[in-house]
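Hey all, quick one. A colleague (J.T.) asked me to put the S-adenosylmethionine job into the tracker so the inputs and the structure tokens live in one place instead of scattered across chat threads. No bug as far as I know, just bookkeeping. Sequence used:
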Amino acid sequence: MGSQWGRDKVYQKAMKQGYRSRASFKLKEILEKNLVLRPHDNVVDLGAAPGSWLQILKENTSGMIVGIDLNPIQPLEGVTTFTGDFSKPRTVARVLELLPVVNLVVCDASPKLSGHKSYDQARSIDLNKMALDFAIQVLCPGGNLVMKSFQGEDFPWIYRKVKEEFFRVTTHKTHSSRKGSTEIYIIARNFIAGREDLFDEESEEVITPENNGSS
Ligand SMILES: C[S@@+](CC[C@H](N)C(=O)[O-])C[C@H]1O[C@@H](n2cnc3c(N)ncnc32)[C@H](O)[C@@H]1O
């Protein structure tokens, strides 16, 4: 049974296996059940802290991986991370600078919860829209998007928006989501359009596999 602090069995299992959070098992399951990541794909992880999805991505691709979060992410060998808000144009520009091609965008971002269900749901859908906009700007034609969402009255709206941009869209509810959770993952495959050209305005400090001192 899940506890308020997340120190449940799934959490303990994740720690034992060296993962940074219980969320690792969600992405593991999604990748096992959905063909969204090929062995050499480049990936961007939005809302990546503390980094367990980055760990799973590292196990599943030899391509380049970039993780972005509002909070700092502890360095991880072979992964580039930086602190930023993925809704900002300069974050998009930074990613386009770092990666020549983006094959997959994953997003497990959550807003700070207020406890008011309908408000929190609306904020989550706002984040989804931002993640979709980000993906539209960076993905290569045929690229994929995996994005956490929440079932509720606004969910059909974001689901429709995603369907306008990808040829194949489904949903996935993971076994390791907490009991009673409305959390659901949108799995969008085969992006219809190409990446837009964006120019960087500002430069930020970026941790790369070369400069993070861990390799
Ligand atoms: C549930 S955690 C992600 C866990 C992560 N997938 C892992 O496996 O370690 C959600 C994260 O989303 C981040 N986040 C929320 N809004 C964001 C934004 N606009 N830009 C970047 N990160 C954001 C939060 O800071 C938080 O760290």
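Adding what we noticed when we looked at it: Residues 172 and 211 are 37 Å apart (CA to CA). The chain has six helices and seven strands.
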